Inverse folding.
């Protein structure tokens, strides 16, 4: 072989050299051993020493150290357990922390079948002391990690099994949103042992353990949604977010679920009982699971009534555990909407809830509703106008009309509006309060009727008046606002009622003006309605209502709606939609609307110009404007005393065709006074929405009906405003062609 060929021969590769391979393997083993040594060293770090010495560690370093102890998945599961058990669960029993004991139980339940958690890592947290140490370490060094939202623990199957096995509701802990007293800022202690409660969520009912705290120094008890002291109950400050609405001391509704209740009422006319039935139907499987955990069996042969389910909108009896009752839905609405309304008027944290009313800003939820309604009577609903609603006449055109479907039964007692030194004012003689259940009168007049020898129950009272048993039975069988008595029976009833009213010696009673916002005006100007006759007789003969029905029913609601569809004002009507009541409501609406301009410092000329550019459309405008009292100046400061004379008045386009008097088409033709695109049918269109609440609210007592309608009007106005801003037409039920704008 030549030298040249020897030079070309390749040398053996060092990579495949046996000695090199052995050396490499030994090096890798040594490297792995060094890694294991570092890991072991990290696992052996004494966390108690780290905490005691306050060693400075970054959150990343602390998480690495914790992960070495219990694994990456372990710290995630521990975070879920730690977030699930509230920090203010501070009670210790026999030297054992209730909080960390529960954290350990939930950690073990969540760790079952969880990939990534081996037995060694799980054993690292086998004792309560180990859990306490790791939790304190994470809370001290890893606040950002702990603040991250964890997965839903309440619906975890293993947690349900844990609750069933331990007979403690581990699914969720309901606790006050604070750990320190609002007054003295000292740490709170547990008021009593854990109690059981039910939380209704969008994912079904959840069995909960409820925690109550107290400050013994200040004698304040802190509940889930409110706190109580000697004077009464208060809402928590607004900055303390509470996710639950308290229905009772054992029933709560999640706010995310609650948002559906007013929304479905507003857009779909769903009643409280309708919502509860739909909820129970959708969550049937979850309710069975609830029964299995709480009562040990998925179905119960005998329903357990866990609360009084009677309600004004058709509650049912025999509610199963885990089922949502109509009463619970209703209570959540009253409680949440009262809270929301008080917040809007700046009184949320000032109102004191108590069984007895001790001041103007105290009392029950019903007292709060009465207070809110008194403000509503004297106020207008505001909205932010947009270009889309201005096209329809918003700000310039306002349409008024009475809705006869939204009524309520009121006390049968005749209460005139009297003034000392003047006598009776010409106004409907009625008591606007709701009657006691099964009675003819309100609570106060029931007592007066008995003193005068009349029974207060409805059937015995009608019998006492001389109404035949057959007619009474027929009336009670057809218990509605539409049943009509015979004329002779009505005469007998009115005779008895008149006799009772004449003997009444009570003063300052509620009357027809109480809930209309007209009391101050009528008492200040008692002679204003002395003459409610027409200046000229008209051929038009509008039906103003006034059925001779069982009990006494209000005539309906009188609305004022802007051309864009925003409801600006409403008041109840009594006896009939008379021109006099309509006139009083309209002039007070004008006063309240344009008094704002006066208060803002605008000149009289500017106010006159604003009033003159405003138009009112009303289907009975011919009769209202023909009242003799309408020809006089109003008893308001200038220039508001001329408001009725200055404002333009028309009859809406739909109803004008029904007027037979030629003067109506000459004086009140909308086509002559407002642009064609102005929507004179805004009120009728709004009634298509409002009238569908008839079956929901007509059985409510007056204070609930007024408050329900008040809140629904606000929801409706917000929706209408949003639609106009986005150049959309608000959705309404189908309207007949004749009523289309």
């Amino acid at each position: 072989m030549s030298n040249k060929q020897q030079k070309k021969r390749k040398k053996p590769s060092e990579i495949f050299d046996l000695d090199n391979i052995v050396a490499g393997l030994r090096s890798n083993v040594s490297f792995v051993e060094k890694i294991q040594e570092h890991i072991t060293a990290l696992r052996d770090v004494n966390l108690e020493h780290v905490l005691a010495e306050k060693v400075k560690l970054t959150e990343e370093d602390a998480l690495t150290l914790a992960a070495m102890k219990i694994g990456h998945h372990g710290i995630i599961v521990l975070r879920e357990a730690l977030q699930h058990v509230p920090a203010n669960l501070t009670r210790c029993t026999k030297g054992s922390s209730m909080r960390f004991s529960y954290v350990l139980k939930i950690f073990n339940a969540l760790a079952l079948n969880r990939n990534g958690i081996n037995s060694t890592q799980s054993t690292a947290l086998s004792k309560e002391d180990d859990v306490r140490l790791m939790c304190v370490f994470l809370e001290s060094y890893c606040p950002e990690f702990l603040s991250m939202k964890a997965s839903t623990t309440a619906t975890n199957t293993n947690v349900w099994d844990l609750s069933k096995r331990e007979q403690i509701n581990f699914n969720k802990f309901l606790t006050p949103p604070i750990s320190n007293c609002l007054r003295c800022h000292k740490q709170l202690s547990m008021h009593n042992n854990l109690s059981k409660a039910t939380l209704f969520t969008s994912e079904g009912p959840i069995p909960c353990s409820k925690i109550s705290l107290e400050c013994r120094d200040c004698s304040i008890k802190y509940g889930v949604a409110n706190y109580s002291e000697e004077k009464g109950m208060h809402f928590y400050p607004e900055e303390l977010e509470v996710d639950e609405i308290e229905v009772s001391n054992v029933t709560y509704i999640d706010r995310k679920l609650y948002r559906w209740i007013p929304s479905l009422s507003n857009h779909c006319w769903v009643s409280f009982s309708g919502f509860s039935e739909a909820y129970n139907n959708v969550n049937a499987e979850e309710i069975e699971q609830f029964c299995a955990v709480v009562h040990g069996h998925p179905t119960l042969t005998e329903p357990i009534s866990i609360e009084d389910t009677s309600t004004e909108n058709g509650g049912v009896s025999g509610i199963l555990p885990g089922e949502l009752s109509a009463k619970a839905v209703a209570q959540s609405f009253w409680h949440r909407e009262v809270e929301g309304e008080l917040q809007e008027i700046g009184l949320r944290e000032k109102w004191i809830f108590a069984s007895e009313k001790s001041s103007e800003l105290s009392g029950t939820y019903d007292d709060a509703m009465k207070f809110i309604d008194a403000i509503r009577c004297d106020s207008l609903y505001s909205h932010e106008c947009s270009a889309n609603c201005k096209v329809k006449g918003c700000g310039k055109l306002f349409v008024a009309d009475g809705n006869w479907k939204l009524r309520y039964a009121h006390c049968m007692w005749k209460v005139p509006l009297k003034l000392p030194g003047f006598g009776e004012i010409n106004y409907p003689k009625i008591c606007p309060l709701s009657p006691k259940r099964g009675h003819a009168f309100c609570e106060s007049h029931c007592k007066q009727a008995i003193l005068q020898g009349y029974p207060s129950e409805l059937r015995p009272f009608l019998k006492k008046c001389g109404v035949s048993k057959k007619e009474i039975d027929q009336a009670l069988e057809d218990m509605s606002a539409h049943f009509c008595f015979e004329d002779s029976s009505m005469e007998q009833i009115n005779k008895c009622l008149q006799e009772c009213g004449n003997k009444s010696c009570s003063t300052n009673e509620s009357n027809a003006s109480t809930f209309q916002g007209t009391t101050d005006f009528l008492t200040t100007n008692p002679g204003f309605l002395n003459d409610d006759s027409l200046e000229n007789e008209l051929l038009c003969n509008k039906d103003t209502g006034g059925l001779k029905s069982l009990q006494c029913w209000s005539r309906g609601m009188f609305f004022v709606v802007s051309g864009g569809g925003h409801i600006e004002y409403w008041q109840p009507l009594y006896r009939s939609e008379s021109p006099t009541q309509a006139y009083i409501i309209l002039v007070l609406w004008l006063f309240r609307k344009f008094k704002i301009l006066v208060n803002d410092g605008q000149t009289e000329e500017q106010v006159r110009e604003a009033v003159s550019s405003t138009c009112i459309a009303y289907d009975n405008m011919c009769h209202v404007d023909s009242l003799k009292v309408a020809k006089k100046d109003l008893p308001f400061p200038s220039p508001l005393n001329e408001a009725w004379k200055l404002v333009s008045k028309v009859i809406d386009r739909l109803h004008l065709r029904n007027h037979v008097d030629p003067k109506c088409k000459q004086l009140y033709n909308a086509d002559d006074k407002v642009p064609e695109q102005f929507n004179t049918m805004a009120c009728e269109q709004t009634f298509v929405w409002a009238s569908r609440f008839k079956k929901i609210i007509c059985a409510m007592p007056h204070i609930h009906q007024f408050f329900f309608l008040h809140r629904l009007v606000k929801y409706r106005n917000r929706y209408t405003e949003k639609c106009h801003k986005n150049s959309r037409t608000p959705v309404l039920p189908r309207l007949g062609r004749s009523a289309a704008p």
Q: What stands out?
A: Residues 18-43 form the longest helix (26 residues). The two ends are 112 Å apart (CA to CA).
